[in-house]
Amino acid sequence: MSDIGADIRQQSLISNADPQDFLALLKPRVMSLVVFTALVGLVMAPGTIHPVIGAIAIFAIAVGGGASGALNMWYDRDIDAVMKRTANRPIPGGRVSAGEALAFGLFLSVFSVMVLGLATNWVAGGLLAFTIFFYVVIYSMLLKRRTAQNIVIGGAAGALPPVVGWAAVTGDVTLAPMVLFAIIFLWTPPHFWALALVKCEDYGRAGVPMLPNVAGEAATRRQILLYTLILVPVAFAPVVLGFGGLAYAVAATLGGAAMILFALQILLAKGTDFTRACWRMFGGSILYLFALFAALLVEWGVAKFGVLTFIRGLWS
Fold this sequence. Notes:
Layout: H1 4-9, H2 19-25, H3 28-44, H4 51-75, H5 77-80, H6 98-119, H7 122-143, H8 150-159, H9 161-170, H10 175-198, H11 200-206, H12 211-214, H13 217-234, H14 237-241, H15 246-268, H16 271-305, H17 307-315
């Protein structure tokens, strides 16, 4: 981190970037998952929160997620430059300087934590600060380049948004949000390892020790199946514990069956079928997680606010 000061000093007074480049720094696709899962945690939380305060809380969590993405891109600019799928990101693409990205990420980090803490409570603000710290320092700086377990441990950062959303309403953390945390945490390895199997040459070129590069393709296939077989029953915990209803049970059953099928296809596929199986798991796992959390959102939104109020809220 000794080059932080140098990066800031090298920042251009006039940026060549346009707003779209700074938006790209926020990793909007990742941010959308952060927003959605945080919203589910907020809606499920017992008690009430004023709609304006709730909107501010979700905005702050989104900004915090984007800040993590910007700081991650600042730190990973060297490996991003040599990986095909990331070479055109704003920093390696030459549209945003490292200093600009660093300053942008640091400002948004402080801003998001302060807004969330002042608008709701400092338990939520502290959890958001910890999420940013974990993703940038623990995952990006300490784990990603050193261990094949980077995704497993680092996945905790991506699993925290529903916990933050819950805490924004209640000021505490109980079993229900931690179950949501566990679902996302266990979902992360098979989701990203499916991509890593396809992009292993890219990661190898960048020197990132993803599991396929360290343990090999066969071991990664088995680990994807193992984590999927653990994830699917854990995803039924909301039903067992009473905060997941019929819609959630259906989503968990059908989605879980599909996830196991995808994992088995990766384990057994050969040749071009193997690549297709990996992409099927990567994309299908996103739909699976969305279906689980969408079911919870609908069930709890209707239960707490009524059908008409909930529908109007979604469209307002």
